[in-house]
Specification:
Helix content: 40-55%
Order of helices and strands: HHHEEH
Distance between the termini: 31 Å
Number of helices: 4
Largest sheet: 2 strands, antiparallel
Shape: elongated
Strand content: 5-15%
Number of strands: 2
Radius of gyration: 18 Å
Length: 110
């Protein structure tokens, strides 16, 4: 899901969201104890300055409070509201920040 050479950055992040959604779906039916066991199993592969106790606590909180939430996707800037431009030797996207901000606020609170 992290391959950059296939298409655009938007497609790459879309693939990442699909993976995260699939992980959430597969974990949703598990108990906090089962999630804790999974967390302990993957701890050796995580590089962070958060202690294992804090990380385990976050996993348990996620299981209790967040796994049953519905997920939705939205990206800023919206499709069709940006264009590719060059800044020196770098290709970047340009968009109207006020329009993007308004669109995001409307998505969240609208």
């Amino acid at each position: 899901c992290r391959i950059r050479k296939l298409d655009s950055d938007f497609k790459r992040t879309e693939r990442q969201r699909k993976v995260l959604s699939a992980v959430k779906t597969s974990l949703s039916g598990l108990s906090p104890f089962e999630l804790g066991d999974i967390a302990k199993e993957i701890f050796p592969y995580i590089d962070t300055d958060i202690s294992q106790e804090e990380l385990l606590s976050l996993c348990i909180k996620a299981a209790i409070f967040y796994l049953d939430y519905d997920m939705s996707e939205y990206h800023v800037p919206e499709d069709g509201s940006w264009e590719n431009t060059w800044k020196g030797s770098q290709q970047v996207i340009t968009f109207d920040i006020d329009e993007a901000s308004s669109s995001l606020i409307n998505y969240i609170y609208g």
